[in-house]
Amino acid sequence: MVEQQKVHSSALQCLAVWMGKRDSSAETCLHAEALVLRVESNGTHASQAGREFRFLTDDSSLNFHVTKIQIAPVGNQSLASALVTSSKYCGWIVLLNMGDQWQCISATFSPPSVCTTPQDYQDVIQLTWDGYSRANRMCDGKKMATVFHPMCRLTEATDVCNDTSTTRSLFLKNQTEFCELVTKRYDDPNSRHYPFRQLKDDLSFLSQYDSLLSIDFATDRVALVTLRIGHPPCLWTDYLTVAKISSQWWIVHKSSCSEPFPEMK
Question: Which Pfam families does the record associate with it (predicted)?
Fold first, then answer.
């Protein structure tokens, strides 16, 4: 509960910055690499650095509420999300615990919608489970590039240990770098997965813990998908922010955390 309160507080601080009520230079709630994406009802979009973004209105209807907090209960528990709503924009804020504070690493907003449809769910499942998860499982970087928007990034808060202490740092890869990692996952001698390369084609073993955990729509154009996929020695939990840009659904941000692959414990 304490950590959820901290996530809630950081999300409210971010919103205050974006509404011009607080000076971003004095805020630590926004990571220096944070990005904000806004998708309008007609499908047009714009992305901006989190510390520079502002909602271009002083309308009192921008009275945001944080309506849902979730923290991935795995690994170093460094991954969280906040669903925020108002009468003008709704969306998902994804935060990473960087050691001393939860910081926003991405946010995606769009105007609220009347409802979502079964087709919206089908489209998002096709994008994330049939597209992303299959490309991930097959180590197919070219296929991954068809679902990972060019602006999309992978981020993760990783623990760096030395003889006397442990610090938290940001692992970040852009779309091109991530797709290359996917392709070379079991082939690169420097990869943590390389010692398990003999399992690369044992799909029944590798996929036994893969699962689509949830799809949470903020609007009919923005959703957060939570899924798990295993690549020894890790079982990853991914928060995939997806958005409908023009007429196509894309993964626009990915944040992850991991725990040991169950067979490796």
Answer: Lumazine_bd_2
User: Cα–Cα–Cα angle for 165, 154, 229, nearest 5°?
Assistant: 90
Full-prediction pTM beyond 0.90? yes
pLDDT for 160 equals 81
**Cβ neighbours around 8 below 10 Å, total:** 16
Which residues of the chain are under the pLDDT cut of 70? Answer: 23-26, 57-61, 265
List, as own/partner pairs, every contact residues 187-196 make where C-beta atoms lie below 8 angstroms and the sequence separation is at least 24, other chains included. Answer: 192/233, 192/234, 193/231, 193/232, 193/233, 193/234, 195/233, 196/231, 196/232, 196/233
Classified as helix, coil or strand, 137 is: helix
Class (C level, CATH) for 118-264? alpha beta
**pLDDT for res 102:** 96
Task: Report yes or no: 241 and 251 within 8 Å, Cβ to Cβ.
Answer: yes
* All residues at 6 or more sequence positions from 87 whose CB lies less than 8 Å from its CB, including other chains: 61, 63, 112
Cα 124 to chain center, whole Å? 15
- Which CATH number is associated with domain 2-110? 3.10.450.50
Q: Among residues 253, 245, 242, 247, which one has the least CA distance to residue 215?
A: 242
- pLDDT per position as a tens digit, 103-120: 999 999 999 987 899 999
Give every CB contact of residue 206 below 8 A, 6+ residues apart in sequence.
137, 199, 200, 230, 231, 232
pLDDT of residue 217: 98
Q: What is the pLDDT of residue 58?
A: 60
Same fold, 2-110 and 118-264: yes
**How far is residue 179's CA from residue 139's CA, in Å, rounded to a whole number?**
9
